[in-house]
Amino acid sequence: MWYHNKPIKFECQSGCSKCCLTEKGEYGSVTYHHTDVQRLDAHDRKELIWVGRANMTKPDYWIQPTSEGSQCMFLVDVPFGGGPKQCGIHKVKPKPCAAYPFWPALMESEERWNKEAEFCPGIGQGDVVPIDTIEAKLKSIKDYPNLERC
Ligand code: SF4
Ligand code: SF4
Fold first, then answer.
1. Domain assignment of residue 148, yes or no
2. What is the distance in A from the centroid of ligand 2 to the CA of 47?
3. Parent domain of 91
4. Which residues line ligand 1 (CB under 6 A)?
5. Cα separation of 110 and 139, whole Å?
6. Which of 104, 108, 140, 146 has the fewest CB atoms in 10 Å of its CB?
7. Is the CB of 93 within 6 Å of ligand 2?
8. Is residue 119 part of a domain?
9. For every one of its 150 residues, what pLDDT tens digit does the chain have, with 9 covering 90 and above?
């Protein structure tokens, strides 16, 4: 793969949240697998499971509604005000969120990766990401539908 021979830098930028917002009416990275929901259940977030079921579009993949609001419902204000919004389920966020931007479709070519860098300001920032880390993130979502940010 092209990225084996090229240093890939990435660091999520504080206060960004772009991939948690809608673009063209779709959410950037929120796709649930039943295992994501099980992790939410294990962390006592049963109210989220109810929402997930209400919006189930396929047996195994639960996808956020696209017709309401302009951001993922888990993007919350920081308690006591101040500061940018942040993920309210960070430790148990769906795997596609945790893996982004290392999605197969976004890494299929250097050209596609560079195009994603126009959207995600974290690409090209920070330290070089080890190949093992990139491969682990790609592997973590291998059972998901072909994720392509909208
Ligand atoms: S778009 Fe990139 S920098 Fe912004 S929150 Fe998402 S991963 Fe982080
Ligand atoms: S679950 Fe968290 S990281 Fe994923 S889109 Fe929602 S707020 Fe963003």
1. no
2. 16
3. 2-66+73-140
4. 12-13, 16-19, 100-101, 120-122
5. 19
6. 146
7. yes
8. yes
9. 999 999 999 999 988 888 887 655 444 445 566 667 667 666 666 655 555 555 555 544 444 444 345 567 677 777 676 677 788 778 878 888 899 999 998 999 999 999 999 989 999 999 999 999 999 999 998 877 666 665
